Structures are given as structure tokens and as C-alpha cells.
Amino acid sequence: MKKFIPILKSTKLFAGVTEDEIAAMLSCLDARLGEYQKGEYVFREGEHLNHITVLISGELHIQRDDYWGNRTIINRIAVGEMFGEAYIAPESGALLNDVLAVEDSTVIFFDVRRIITVCSSACRFHSMVVQNLFFAISEKNKALIRKLGHISKRTTREKLISYLSEEAKRRNSANFTIPFNRQQLADFLSVDRSAMSNELCKMRDDGLIEFEKNQFRLL
Amino acid sequence: MKKFIPILKSTKLFAGVTEDEIAAMLSCLDARLGEYQKGEYVFREGEHLNHITVLISGELHIQRDDYWGNRTIINRIAVGEMFGEAYIAPESGALLNDVLAVEDSTVIFFDVRRIITVCSSACRFHSMVVQNLFFAISEKNKALIRKLGHISKRTTREKLISYLSEEAKRRNSANFTIPFNRQQLADFLSVDRSAMSNELCKMRDDGLIEFEKNQFRLL
DNA sequence: ATAAATCGGTTGTATTTACAACGGAAAAGA
DNA sequence: TCTTTTCCGTTGTAAATACAACCGATTTAT
Q1: CA dihedral A87, A88, A92, A93 (to 10 degrees)
Q2: For A30-182, where are the E strands, in sequence order?
Q3: Within a 13 Å sphere around the CA of A59, how many CA atoms are in the beta-carbon half?
Q4: What is the number of alpha carbons within 13 Å of residue A208 lying toward its C-beta?
Q5: Whole-number Å distance between alpha carbons of B22 and B96
Q6: How far is CA B168 from CA A97, B61, B162, B207, in A?
Q7: What residues contact residue B44 under an 8 Å CB cut-off, 6+ apart?
Q8: pLDDT tens column, A75-119
Q9: I need a surface site. Which of A44, A180, B208, B211 has the fewest CB within 10 A?
Q10: What pLDDT digit, counting tens, does each position of B116-167 carry?
């Protein structure tokens, strides 16, 4: 577990906490390791969570498959990001989505109650982590609102423009690589893959964008 | 301001805090009153927030109008609920939506920093409010995920079923009244009003639902 | 090295949707 | 009360989308 401390230090959850302090907290927060192969589910819809999950390596998708097999990718968890903040309330109920490892992944679980209940020693770094968690949920909230902004657009083209513009803005460059393949992007934007693929090409023909594989350029 | 204390006591933010304690906190949290007429904007997209807003009376819509006049209703704030939790982080940036009073409304603003910075006296109720805020953001997070579930459905009928089913489940009854008129519901589900109206009637003809005005019944 | 699976683009068709326009009923305002 | 506005359903048409099916290229597995 100790070898992951440098990675933990770089996460939003432990921002401003030293490696020594993190080491001290590992047992305090009942940290446990989890390893998942590509294609394995970390959690399934309907489960009850008691842990905050921090991704150490790999990649996770928060997603949901409906009765007819239509998949919706709610969100994507990259290395250093976390999952489960929406379920910290005691009566927060069952998990609304599946959590899938789309790459071989390593995660660390932290006991929620131990995080939000300030420990007896009332350590400085503990309250720091609570505040970090606070801001992280808040930030995820905004990410969801931004995502709503994309998929509430009426046409596929508008959805694509909305998404790609934001990515460009976020990376601060008209050139960027997206973390989705075509099917995943379609699932993320809630559209049909082939129709989306088609629209992407039309947008290229119209001189709006250029792309090759997952690399895009806005014109 | 004091006359609103009973209402504040019933909100999620002040759950478990006595009226006396709330009274003591009002100045501590720099509480300020705001009144808005139906149709007035409480906030506009692009503003920077420093306050948590609690709705005392009336109703608010969190929404966004795009360049072409298409409106998206992100969320609805009912009496006792709050807004602004997603913007508590210091570097959380500008407001992503408008906040509109859809009825004559009264709100109370609380200074964010004073909430999340535990006051020198480290009062019991203050830490209670912090935890309440924690859970409230968490809950709002889930509300957004549920909403994503609705509008990521492919057809208007599926969106309606998804939304109506959840309402029925939430009210624990197949009979319920929704808080939107047709145009608002369409804006909430990101579909065209007339097409949605049409689909609702088809669903009635198909024996799936009954409705009159805003009152619905699932069959 | 070969086979198998994944991925991205293309096409045609049936379905669904947006959009515009209209009218009657109900509600709000004068 | 009378007028005006809002609300909701209806219709027709053009546009956009989902869906299925297919293919070549690339990647992955054996």
C-alpha cells in the first residue's frame, strides 16, 4: 500500500497533505486495496456503498445499461480521481450505476464514516481531507451540469460541438485527444454510434473540425 | 429575519439544529434576505457566487437558454431546498446557469466561507450544518444523475416514462401532480413541447397513463 | 503467423423528432 | 365584464435519428 502514497498525494482528496500524514491516515481511514481487470465491474447498480474509491491506475467508467442494452456512460474516472462521494450520506440508498474497469485498474477504498467523522485526535490533515472531499463533490456536481449541457442539445452535431468545445477549452488548445473511442463517445453523448460517426464526417466536410482516431482539432 | 427561523429549521441544511441555535447562527453566517418577483432572475450565468441560497417561499428554476432560445431546465428548487452548493470551492469559477424565480420568492443568502470555515467557538451546531451541507451536495449529485438517466433515453416516450415512473416512486403513489406545466416539462426533458404533448396523448391512447393538467396516473 | 475480435466509416430505410402554425379553453388582467 | 394572455392539444412537413447490415483496417489473442 505504501508504494501508492506518492500517487495519493497528487489526488484532489489528499491535496495539501504530506506523504507522512497520508501514511498515518491509511490505517485511520481503513484503506484497502482493490485490483480489477479490464472488463470487470468494481460495483454494480443496486449495491450499497460505504467507501470512497480512489483510482490509482487504469480507468473506470460510471455507466448504466438499460433493459434494451442501451448503454449510457455517465462519467469517466481518471487516475487520481475518485468515486462514491454521492453516496456518503447514511441514508443515501443504492448505487444508481455500474462502475466498470475499462482498463486493468487499481483502486484504494476508504471508509466513508471514518473520513467524515473527525477522529479523536482531530488531526489537521484529517480536516483538510474533509474539506478536499467537500470541494471534490462540488466539482463533480458541476461536471454533471456540464454534461447535462451537452446531452440536452437537440441534434447530434450540437452535442458534439458542445462536448468538443469544452474539451478544447479545458485543455486550452484547439488540438486535443479525447479519452473515448467512437462507441464510448456515442454512449457518453447518448446518440447512435453510426449516426454520430456520420455526423463527425459531415462536420469535417463542412470544415468545422479535423480528426484522426481520437485526436481532434477545432477549426 | 427571525420569522423565517421555523422554516429554516425544517430545511436539510439546518436539520438537527434547534431554533435558538439557528438564531445564533444567523449573524455568524452573515444571513441576508432576498426577495424576487415572478419572472425575476436571482442569478445570471457567469456571475460569481459567494453564498448558499436557501428558498423560504416561492419556487426557483435552475436553467439555461442557449443562443437559439432553447431553454433547458436543469433543476427545480422547492421551498426549503437550496442552491449554490456546487460553487463553494474557492476556485469554482462562474455560474453555469441562470436562476429564475418562477413564483414570487423569498430567499436567504448565507456566506459560504463562514459556513465551511468552522468558527472560533467551534460550536456543535456549526459542524452539524457543515455535515448537512455535505449530505445535501451529495444528494443533489444523485438528483443530477437521475436526471441524466431521463434525458439520456432515446425517445420522447422513454424519457416521459423514465421521469413519470420516478415521480410515482418518489411519491409512493401511481397518482401524483408534477410541478411543471407542459412547456416546462419539455424544457426539463429537453424535447419539443408539441411533440411531447402529442406523445403524452398517444401514451394515454395506448393505455399507459391518464392525466388531466398536471395530475398524472400511471396504469 | 494466423485467427479472431474490435473499431470506424458507409449506406439505406423506417421511425422519430423539431418546427411552424393554428384554435379552443382556461386563466389572468384591466 | 371584456380583453388579453397563457396553456395545451392537433396537424403536416421537413429534418434528424436509430437501426441494421456490411466492409476494410487495425488490434488483440492464440
Answers
A1: 60
A2: 32-36, 41-43, 51-57, 60-65, 71-77, 82-83, 98-101, 105-111, 175-177
A3: 9
A4: 14
A5: 30
A6: 20, 21, 10, 17
A7: B95, B98, B99
A8: 999 999 999 999 988 888 999 999 999 999 999 999 988 887 765
A9: A44
A10: 776 555 566 777 888 899 899 999 999 999 999 999 999 999 999 999 999 9
CA of B67 to C1' of D30 (A): 55
Please report, rounded to whole angstroms, the spatial distance between the CA atom of protein residue B73 and the C1' atom of nucleotide C16. Answer: 23
CA separation (Å) from A161 to A151, A155, A216?
Answer: 11, 10, 12
Choose among B110, B50, B48, B101: nearest CA to B77. B101
The number of CA neighbours under 13 Å toward the Cβ of A71 is 15
H/E run at residue B57: strand B51-57
Task: Output the nine-digit C-alpha cell for B191.
Answer: 424535447
The full set of domains in chain B, from first to last, is 2-143 (2.60.120.10), 153-218 (1.10.10.10)
Residues of B with a Cβ under 8 Å from any A Cβ are 64, 66, 70, 72, 74, 85-90, 92-93, 96-97, 116, 131, 133-135, 137-142, 144-149, 151-154, 190
A182: left (phi over 0), alpha (psi -120 to 50) or beta: alpha
pLDDT computed for residue B28 by the predictor:
84
CA B68 to CA B85: how far, in whole Å?
29
User: Cβ contacts (< 8 Å) between B151 and chain A: which residues?
Assistant: 148, 151-152, 190
Of B74, B93, B145, the CB nearest to A96: B145
Q: Are B133 and B53 in contact (CB under 8 A)?
A: no
Q: What is the pLDDT of residues A133-177, one digit of tens each?
A: 989 999 999 999 999 999 999 999 999 999 999 999 999 999 999
Cα distances from A55 to residues A98, A107, B90, in angstroms, run 15, 5, 24
B132 is written with which cell numbers? 448537512
Check whether B5 has a pLDDT greater than 90: yes
User: Is the CB atom of residue A92 positioned under 7 angstroms from any atom of strand C?
Assistant: no
